[in-house]
């Protein structure tokens, strides 16, 4: 089914479908109504009313529901819910205070691959970061703790001093 996704709410307790539906339609800022279907084990299918709404929900996360991560995947009608693997989530990483020579797509790809799997590096047509920060979208494991801040060392000499 086009414009459909399957999601899982990583909550310790079962979710209420009606609450999930109302909450996520607001969070996604949908222009058309979406239809939700409970598939058991906190897994649900959602059919979006337009391609734009589907693209927004699929590419602008990560999303949360009831203070827990919500993972969305493209809908595959040939896979059983019990066989679906929800172990990764796409996140945006913002890197600030980089030297101008490091605000490149290639550096963003290297950083994103270090974090997980690179999905996208937000750069202009010349391959440079937009503005004073580099943004990287990476697919990371939901089972690894999130690191809020880390500092990149400038040189090998700096690494040897610490």
TrEMBL record:
Tell me the domain of life: Eukaryota
Residue ranges annotated for the DUF4283 domain, each copy included = 2-83
Q: Which Pfam families match?
A: DUF4283
By what name is this protein known? DUF4283 domain-containing protein
